[in-house]
Amino acid sequence: MKKILIIKFSAIGDVFMAMPHIDAILSAHKKDEVWLLTSRLFMDFFARHPRLKAVELDPGRRISKNSALGRTLWARRQKFDAVCDLQGNRVSRRIARHSGAPVRAGTQPSGAYNFHPERPYTNQSRTHVTGRLDETLESAGLPRSGKGFSAYPSPEDEKKVAEWKEKNGVADGGHAILHAGSSKGWESKRWPGSHYRDLALRLEAEGVRCVWVGGREDREINREMARWAGIDATGHFSLMGLYLMGKNAKLAVCNDSAPMHIMAAAGAPTYGFFGPTSWMKNHASGQRRRVIQNDSPCSPCFSGKCPPDRNHMCLDAISPGEVFDTIRRDLPLS
Fold first, then answer.
1. Among 16, 185, 215, 242, which is least packed, fewest CB within 10 Å?
2. In this structure, are 71 and 204 located in the same domain?
3. What are phi and psi of 318, to 5 degrees?
């Protein structure tokens, strides 16, 4: 039996995009022992996985067993036969390089790996993130990813989501997940709150209950949105809980964010706004036709704040009516 290490710990949306690739590695190593080095956020998500042994990495810690140094030493002691680095940053490269594994596959040409795609992957690359991960797997003789992945919620996860739905009058298949926020430092990714409000009012008029999701940084905007339409569910769900909310959602409308990727992974029809970032590289998996963007000459700028003279034209110019009509042409709402 061989020992295989997969490295993938951030960001949240990127980990969800990589889950079909994790399944592909598992399918190629059915009789082997497969470990996943991931962040604390995902330890609960993978806790019930029957094939993966998940261990925590905390790159922000200086000295501990879960720090970058601690996990580098741990990986070397484990004597892995192969390391597949789906993260591709400085920390993961160091772990792969010093693991001592005879097979080391990574996402970028680097001396840390002996298997990798030939071309560097940059902001100017036009290949989607999932395509790049497929290239990484193929470089090591592994199969490309399939559609979807296996998730293993606990009965407690399912019960908590069911109870929340019952308490808030949210019927299965009758709700929309909306994420009007963004991660810290990326305010430029936000479609205007007034536009989200108007879209939510239109959806609720069609009988679609709107659920506003997000983390601490989204609390203020979600509270404001829920004053007009829908339910503020900020911070109510774990990653698995949010995934379960998406499993039978009618649709999701999100900025380029973690919830966008979680909703797509759950199988919800997911409409994603793109302006400052590249939709070609980062659109929700399987949702290319639901990308919402306009052809602003400055897009993508990869800037967290829009210069005042640009007036956020890449997203502000997309009207709620346009988005609602796009959804209505695509899905039966009532």
1. 185
2. no
3. -85, 115
Q: Which residues pair with 36 in a beta bridge?
A: 6, 54
Same domain, 129 and 173: no
Q: Which token pair is 35?
A: 């470990």
Ramachandran region of residue 218, left (φ > 0), alpha (ψ -120 to 50) or beta? alpha
Domain with 268, as residue range(s), is 156-330
Closest CA to 26 of 80, 84, 79, 105: 84
At 319 the three-state DSSP class reads coil
Q: How far is CA 143 from CA 25, 28, 106, 108, 265, in A?
A: 8, 7, 15, 18, 20
DSSP state of 179: E
At residue 56, what are phi and psi to the nearest 5 degrees?
A: -90, 140
CATH code at 192?
3.40.50.2000
Structural domain count, the chain: 2
Amino acid at 297: P
**Res 72: pLDDT:** 98
The amino acid that residue 248 corresponds to is N
Is residue 311 predicted with pLDDT exceeding 80? no
Q: Same domain for 194 and 275?
A: yes
**Per-residue model confidence as pLDDT tens digits over 127-151:** 999 999 999 999 999 999 998 899 9
- Calculate the CA 214 to chain-centre distance: 13
199 with 324: CB under 8 angstroms?
yes
Tell me the whole-structure pTM to 2 decimals: 0.95
pLDDT of 312 strictly over 90 = no
Q: Are 133 and 186 contained in the same domain?
A: no
Query: According to the model, what pLDDT value does residue 273 have?
Result: 98
Query: In this structure, are residues 193 and 230 in contact, taking their beta carbons and an 8 Å threshold?
Result: no
Structure confidence at residue 24 as a pLDDT band (50, 70, 90): very high
Q: Are residues 188 and 135 in the same domain?
A: no
**SS3 call for 137:** helix
Q: Which of 71, 106, 139 is the last residue of a domain?
A: 139
Based on the fold, state whether residues 172 and 313 are members of the same structural domain.
Answer: yes
The alpha carbons of the chain give a radius of gyration, in whole angstroms, of: 20
